[in-house]
Amino acid sequence: xxxxxxxxxxxxxxxxxxxxxxxxxxxxxxxxxxxxxxxxxxxxxxxxxxxxxxxxxxxxxxxxxxxxxxxxxxxxxxxxxxxxxxxxxxxxxxxxxxxxxxxxxxxxxxxxxxxxxxxxxxxxxxxxxxxxxxxxxxxxxxxxxxxxxxxxxxxxxxxxxxxxxxxxxxxxxxxxxxxxxxxxxxxxxxxxxxxxxxxxxxxxxxxxxxxxxxxxxxxxxxxxxxxxxxxxxxxxxxxxxxxxxxxxxxxxxxxxxxxxxxxxxxxxxxxxxxxxxxxxxxxxxxxxxxxxxxxxxxxxxxxxxxxxxxxxxxxxxxxxxxxxxxxxxxxxxxxxxxxxxxxxxxxxxxxxxxxxxxxxxxxxxxxxxxxxxxxxxxxxxxxxxxxxxxxxxxxxxxxxxxxxxxxxxxxx
Length: 412
Fold this sequence. Notes:
With 412 residues, the chain is mostly helical. The chain is built from 18 helices and no strands. The protein is globular. The N and C termini lie far apart (44 Å).
């Protein structure tokens, strides 16, 4: 395992260097491009060098991408994201962020479910209503990690960064809870009752938020007892990892626990319990850890192509699902942004950026990999992967030109 992890880290470092020095792309996107090219070469060479291909396939399956993302990496990425949010801007847009991450995610899941049901029947691929709802739940959460990097680099307005970043942090947890609640429904052709689903949804989501707040308050108390940045940073690391593991063990929403704990340390720990030196060290540590894990995550996301089963019908369904996901995203965002336009300057431009900037990422792949043991749901893996690749590469790389055209970023 150590040798395997060493190979992943070395590849991530090399791809990051090539992306920064030669491709001139955002490091995460450039790393994913290079890993996709490498995975494609592995697939093509598999016909002539079968043992090499089988070795690569076995190594990736051994990694267990689903568990790595859902039960490990999200603990660090969500905590770091919450720790670096602009709290003043978040307070101003709290209603919009809350509605987008909850009602927006639910509405998007329902719209995508209806559209993908039509697409699958058009492509003669069997599908059940519950399976389509599960797909809607896993593809609705946004993951604008790569876009946020560009937003900060080009100096995009604070409200755009807050809306995209804040929504993505919370809707990751909401989407995961929705997915697991639907997955626990007995019977492939039956839909869950509204009462049982609502109870399960709010117990898991509310339990995760409550646990994050309680653990955050406890660690905040401990931070007040000392003035040593090494121990203070270590305590936040323990909170991120221990709180997430505890939420997993209690079967409540670990992603929402991580977000709630990170926001509490961001708001109370920084201002009331830490010295300026400790705050600077804390930011440096979590920024560096966040950047490194994102590069590794996008590397693995590209190499996931190795385990994706592709066929003509599935590729066609995936390509048709791309505009379906964008339409659902645009409608769910528009329905909620329009009544709240007094809090959002230039609502039309904001809607366009929120729609195109709502990337799908590693969480969707991690969730869909949990469906591989159910033959009826396996077609959703290649469809999800096609949407994610388009989302990161096409939407991600065109965000800066879009922002400049809308006047949200200065010219180069």
